[in-house]
Amino acid sequence: MNPEAAIFYKKKALAERLLKIPVEDLKIAPKQSWYGEYLALLAIRLENPLINFLKKDFIEELRGFYEQNLEKSERELALLGMIQFVEPTEIKIPFNMHLWHKRFILDLQSVFLNQFIYPNYSDAEIATYYLARQKNWRPEKRKIRAVFLVHARAVCDKIFPVYEAMKEREDFEAFLVVHSESDFKYNENSRSYFYNRYPNDKIYDYGLMDLRKLNPDYVFLTNPYESRRNFPSFRVNDIVKFAKVCMISYGATLSSAFAERLFDDFPNFYRNIYLFFASAEGVKNILDKKFSQEISAGYKHVEFFGYPILKNYYRPEKKSSAAKNILWAPRWLYDERWGGSHFLEYKNNFIALRGKYGAKIKLTFRPHMRLFRDLISKNLMTEQEVEDYKNFLKENHVIYQADMSDMDKNIRDVDIFICDYSSVMICFFLTGRPIIYCEFPNAKPFPEYEEMFSAMYIARSWKDVENYLDELIKGNDILSEKRSKVAKKIFDTHKDATEKIIGRIVQDFNQSLA
């Protein structure tokens, strides 16, 4: 269906629905289920001549309802329907706004003044409408303006290679925007990290409340967690009105179970993405099916060029050491839909390796940054138990690597990785060092990663972990040659990702100029 036609029928259906609500609901409108959808549709002005013809007929129907209820407050419901299709100034009928909630009045005014409002609503038709409009945008011939929205340093490093390459080019203007939490508070450690990493760059944070002021052509996001982005213009449902949204996910998805779950849990986000740069061919295949109509119409694009950050992990140089550095990276979430975790089961066993191997090993503990927070919130550990465990690590000379930034540098000297299912597994794998994978049975890998999983040591119990460690510490790494060949193959697939992504942006921009 034509996107404008779809929006017309959504507007019409919503207007008909509003005619049937109690007029008293206008006093509590912001709490009503229809409120967000109403404002989102209200902001869309229809331009198609054929649709305008249908629009006039429906406005006459609404006017008839108004005339029938001239002596009743219900006439206001007809006015709500009419301004879905025409400006309030075009309606020569008085509004009795004393019947409306004050916020409702202010939000309506904001819409018609082309200002942002806080309700955020999106569905397939609204997303497709805005994506279809983007296809027809014709920017002036100038440098390409790309904004990179960043927040937590641990999840934004995946877009750094693209940002760094763009800002060195003559045909791009690249901007880094650090946004606060939804409560408008900044994580100062994270914020300082970006300033220290890019001391000579113009970085936006405080004071930038409207992303439109940067006049971006493309906005890069790394995660679908809209509630963490504070101002309305930082959220995908609003960004699509003035820029094309590009996505490089903060985690490399290795399994279809995780990709499906992510897309199904955040549909309003993913349906608004104009250019999705997938981390795996399997991810692209899933999105190609989910958004087949939008892709075939040219409204949405899904590309697999590789995962830019992986280039940093391929076979890094390592300092020689007599002791084997063993890093354990347990997953954070005790929810089997998202991979589960072995932390509670193995937390004491890992520290006990000190007693078993002594000076032969060096132990490093690198949990997901949300591990302890989640354990406490789920009442699986108390705050005191977490503090006691951290002290236990220190007493046994286990390095607690709480800083998640610049992982490619922090793991450079690791000899053996022990991990649950995680997107960082592929990063570990490219180092060429052995991985003991504490298996999550539901995480069946994409076909392109089956070889990678077969080149890891699969542990189904702590006894398996220790058996593998016994052999690896002795120097018996039977998967070494296979792992090296597979790592080279993965590296060759991903090594030019940054250049290909930038090339695709340039291609899209130039096509828009035509």
> What general form does the structure show?
elongated
Number of strands: 13
> What structural class do the secondary elements suggest?
alpha/beta
The proportion of strand residues reads: 5-15%
The DSSP helix count reads: 23
The N- and C-terminal alpha carbons lie at a distance of 26 Å
| Largest sheet geometry | 7 strands, parallel
Low-confidence residue ranges: none
Q: Give me the Rg, rounded.
A: 27 Å
What is the mean predicted local confidence, pLDDT? Answer: 92
Major β-sheet strand ordering: 3-2-1-4-5-6-7
Q: Which percent bin holds the helix content? A: 40-55%
How would you characterize the overall build of this protein?
- By secondary structure, the protein is an alpha/beta fold.
- Helices cover 44% and strands 11% of the residues.
- It contains 23 helices and 13 strands.
- The strands form two sheets. Strands 3-2-1-4-5-6-7 form a seven-stranded parallel beta sheet, with helices on both faces. The protein has a six-stranded parallel beta sheet with strand order 10-9-8-11-12-13.
- Helix 3 packs antiparallel against helix 4 (75-82) and helix 8 (160-166) packs across helix 23.
- The chain starts with a helix and ends with a helix.
- The model has no long low-confidence stretch (mean pLDDT 92).
Brief overview:
The protein is built from 23 helices and 13 strands. The chain is an alpha/beta fold and 514 residues long.
Furnish the topology, listing elements before pairings.
Blueprint: H1 3-18, H2 35-42, H3 49-68, H4 75-82, H5 102-112, H6 124-135, E1 144-150, H7 153-156, H8 160-166, E2 172-178, H9 188-197, E3 203-204, E4 218-221, H10 236-239, E5 244-248, H11 256-265, H12 267-270, E6 275-277, H13 281-290, H14 292-296, E7 301-303, E8 324-329, H15 343-357, E9 361-365, H16 371-377, H17 383-395, E10 399-400, H18 407-410, E11 416-419, H19 425-430, E12 435-438, H20 450-454, E13 457-459, H21 462-474, H22 480-494, H23 497-513
Parallel strand pairs: 1-2, 1-4, 2-3, 4-5, 5-6, 6-7, 8-9, 8-11, 9-10, 11-12, 12-13
Helix pairs in contact: 1-4, 1-6, 3-4, 8-23
